Amino acid sequence: ARAPEPPRAAAVSASRRPRAMKLNEDTVLQGERATLVPYTSAHVPRYHEWMKSEELQRLTASEPLSLEQEYEMQRSWREDADKCTFIVLDTERWSAQACADEDCMVGDVNLFLTDVEDPTLGEIEIMIAEPSNRGRGFGKEATLMMMSYGVKNLGITKFEAKIGQENEASISMFKKLHFKEVAVNSIFQEVTLRLDVSDQEKHWLLEQTSHVKEKSYTDLKLPAAVPQT
User: Fold this and answer.
1) Which Pfam families does this entry report, sorted A to Z (predicted)?
2) What is the torsional sign of CA 153, 154, 155, 160?
3) Do 146 and 175 touch, CB atoms closer than 8 A?
């Protein structure tokens, strides 16, 4: 989901960060229910339609953008060293190539590397955009895959999730993934949950994602593939 820029846009030297968005620009993570693909310009129109929803704007603390602004956001995120974003697809529909990428979209998952002093801390967000796709396991598997990717590829050892107090389903899901509630912000009506990835938690996480296949987005030559910007 589109993150509110302050305070997440706190200036962080690119030299201190892995090239987060560049790192996953050709990565596909295929799970049983959810498949994660890099966020390209082909995904922007569908994403833009989602974000016209007042519910999603509220849940993601986002402001409505024009379509051109959405394209600009996608381009900037591809160059941002502090964000790692995947679009979540429906594996069943996508793997059968029954639909183009954008027609299989169900949401997105993000890691924000926001702490200048601690590059091992990642703030994670998951959005399953349409109510008809919620409660079907997409969010849980996509979150686990992103966490595993962050641990293995970005050196993340601690995760935080900041969730609106009204979003009980999301809070419950993160608690099932071993996150603990550590703070409540009454002003922003937001709960902060945290997971420290001990050796035991890392073993559990990698077990949960042992079925995930990593592929090259370019090599798959998906129907929706377009020159990436």
Assistant:
1) Acetyltransf_3
2) negative
3) no
Within 8 A by CB and 6+ apart from 182, the residues are 192, 193, 194
Superfamily of domain 27-213: Gcn5-related N-acetyltransferase (GNAT) (3.40.630.30)
pLDDT per residue as tens digits for the range 184-228: 999 989 999 999 999 999 999 999 999 999 999 988 854 554 545
Least confident of 63-72, 94-103, 129-138, 173-182: 94-103
pLDDT at 156 over 90: yes
Using one digit for the tens of pLDDT, what is the confidence trace for 23-34?
Answer: 898 999 999 999
